């Protein structure tokens, strides 16, 4: 029988920090590069599952030369913490929402302009095309490397504890949690709501304790984070589309030899395309599941929200902030906004 002494335990934790956090990790003996990848989602979310597939593929096809350990579910901190860590090199990979990375690269938030995209055909035309290339170039200037394909986070919906949101006037005075994003704050202020920026890791408790009355997220996040336990209504506003940029510390990217750079680029982009399809299929059944858990749905029309945003000068203001070049690329995919 082996006795687990304090010294033995400390050595085990030092050798495998992911095990101490409850994350399975394969032995990395012989790995030339051992990288850490962090995200804020549960292990059941399609992003985690497809990222794990990509990590396994990279390990296999590199013959163990590149080992990547995944730290899911905010294990290494909130979004702002992880973004800071990937910039400094404390972690090598991170998948922030575009709204999160926009705190460092402001133009990254352009996909989150309120009611800009009417459907996914417009989303991928923009983000797989010239607008996405423009944003990646700007991300590169922040000591980060952005993979070509964005991963889907979905259209965002509003949930509330007190009443459904049928039109723009129903948001008057509503205390709503939004990401740490100037664009989100600006949009909900223009809609006369009272937005509060909180880390995603704080959302459930803030709703539970009524620090805020409402929040907005895509349906898979509402389901995975069990927000239906602390909310009563879900209004399918589709107010913004949000996605995840798969990013790496630029120095960590450059340390890899060309064959490994190509491998992880291919593996993560391929996995991202599969994750998009996973999320599409999931959204087909997720509303029924949430309804069965007591969440009540309604379908507001976009017209009153768009009219209010135009009246408040929201589109004109953000055209000025993003610049004519980026705004022109957006309107080239979705049509005239301002």
Automatic annotation (TrEMBL):
<dbReference type="GO" id="GO:0055085">
    <property type="term" value="P:transmembrane transport"/>
</dbReference>
<comment type="similarity">
    <text>Belongs to the bacterial solute-binding protein 7 family.</text>
</comment>
<dbReference type="InterPro" id="IPR038404">
    <property type="entry name" value="TRAP_DctP_sf"/>
</dbReference>
<protein>
    <submittedName>
        <fullName>ABC transporter substrate-binding protein</fullName>
    </submittedName>
</protein>
<feature type="signal peptide">
    <location>
        <begin position="1"/>
        <end position="20"/>
    </location>
</feature>
<dbReference type="InterPro" id="IPR004682">
    <property type="entry name" value="TRAP_DctP"/>
</dbReference>
<dbReference type="GO" id="GO:0030288">
    <property type="term" value="C:outer membrane-bounded periplasmic space"/>
</dbReference>
<keyword id="KW-0813">Transport</keyword>
<dbReference type="InterPro" id="IPR006311">
    <property type="entry name" value="TAT_signal"/>
</dbReference>
<dbReference type="InterPro" id="IPR018389">
    <property type="entry name" value="DctP_fam"/>
</dbReference>
<keyword id="KW-0732">Signal</keyword>
<dbReference type="Pfam" id="PF03480">
    <property type="entry name" value="DctP"/>
</dbReference>
């Amino acid at each position: 029988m082996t006795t687990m002494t304090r010294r033995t335990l400390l050595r085990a934790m030092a050798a495998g920090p992911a095990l101490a956090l409850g994350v399975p990790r394969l032995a990395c003996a012989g790995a030339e590069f051992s990288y850490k990848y962090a995200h804020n989602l549960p292990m059941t979310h399609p992003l985690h599952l497809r990222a794990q597939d990509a990590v396994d593929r990279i390990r296999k096809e590199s013959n163990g030369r590149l080992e990547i350990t995944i730290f899911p579910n905010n294990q290494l901190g909130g979004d702002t913490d992880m973004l800071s860590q990937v910039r400094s090199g404390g972690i090598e990979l991170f998948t922030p929402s575009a709204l999160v990375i926009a705190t460092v690269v402001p133009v990254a938030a352009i996909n989150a302009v309120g009611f800009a995209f009417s459907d996914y055909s417009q989303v991928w035309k923009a983000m797989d095309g010239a607008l996405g290339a423009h944003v990646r170039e700007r991300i590169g200037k922040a000591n980060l490397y952005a993979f070509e394909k964005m991963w889907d986070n979905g259209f965002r919906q509003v949930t509330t504890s007190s009443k459904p949101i049928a039109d723009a006037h129903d948001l008057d005075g509503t205390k709503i949690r939004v990401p740490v994003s100037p664009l989100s704050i600006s949009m909900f202020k223009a809609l006369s709501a009272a937005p509060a920026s909180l880390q995603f890791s704080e959302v459930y408790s803030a709703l539970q304790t009524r620090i805020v009355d409402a929040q907005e997220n895509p349906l898979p996040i509402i389901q995975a984070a069990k927000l239906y336990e602390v909310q009563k209504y879900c209004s399918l506003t589709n107010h913004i589309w949000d996605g995840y940029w798969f990013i790496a510390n630029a120095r960590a990217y450059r340390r890899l030899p060309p064959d490994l750079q190509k491998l992880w680029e291919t593996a993560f982009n391929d996995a991202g395309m599969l994750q998009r399809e996973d999320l599409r299929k999931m959204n087909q059944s997720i509303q029924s599941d949430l309804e069965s858990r007591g969440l009540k749905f309604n379908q507001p029309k976009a017209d009153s929200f768009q009219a209010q945003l135009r009246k408040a000068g929201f589109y004109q203001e953000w055209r000025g902030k993003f610049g004519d070049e980026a705004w022109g690329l957006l309107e080239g995919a979705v049509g005239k906004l301002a």
